Amino acid sequence: MSKNQLAPIRTDEFENYFTQKELDIVVNSIAKNATNEELALFIQICKNNGLDPFKNHIYFIKYGNQMSIQVSVEGIQYLAQQRDDYRGVTTQLVHENDDIEFAVDENTQEVRVVKHGIKFPRGKVAACYAIARREGFPDKLVIIEREEVEHLSKKSGSQWNTYFNDMFKKHVLKRALKAQFGIDVDDQDQQEIEPYQPRQRVDITPEDNKSISVNEGEVIDADDALAKTWAEIQNIVNDRGVSKEDLKDYIQEKFQKKSKELTLQEVVALKKMLDYDFPKQKPAAEEMSFDDFEGMELE
């Protein structure tokens, strides 16, 4: 075997966590093109923390030789829910016509919601807050104004453009859970993700509260990764002369979903499939833009 050849991927050591069928999907789809070391690392992270890639708790993302592992908001919430002292989390949007009042608790010095009245019409979304509850601890309230996250909706292809309210709530939810339960490398009492190598702790929610990286390469946010992958798909279909209708039919055939319903893993898989199934040809007469992708719906 030459130095450039990889040994066959051994999956038997992980069969006590994934079934053989699940392992096949991980190897051939979820973590496709992973090296042996990257695959072993990804599965080890899933196994050590009970994260399930089939429930979108965690993503394997690879661009060229750069590999990153992204723990989703759902994954972070799952980690919090496994604790005996988890007592739930509430997330609410604040609209400009709502009657809301916050105050600092004299005993705990924590900010709390005094009242939140809803009036109609509610007006535009002005802020969002999340309350994470933990037994034996004061409720942790995180408040973020709209202006603090509007830059995220200005990125081409970002999910924030189409699903701003949902993304806003997830963003604040993640911040509140991190603050309340200390899902952080500095908190040794908390489950943590082990990204770079097995049995070395690392933060699953860095200071930007958006993403993690597991090597010396790029740190990727899930929304940025989705936008970047759609941009690459856009280049492929424009370069290969694939029409908008052909792309719709292709997505329907392969995924039985509308394009806006595809997960990050499915969009990454779509890019690879398009690159393989559509060889280069004459450019399409009309190129598609991000607006086409954002508004695309399958019949």
From TrEMBL:
One of its GO terms (biological process) is DNA metabolic process. This is Recombinase RecT. One of its GO terms (molecular function) is DNA binding. It comes from Sutcliffiella horikoshii. It comes from the Bacteria. The lineage of its organism: Bacteria, Bacillati, Bacillota, Bacilli, Bacillales.
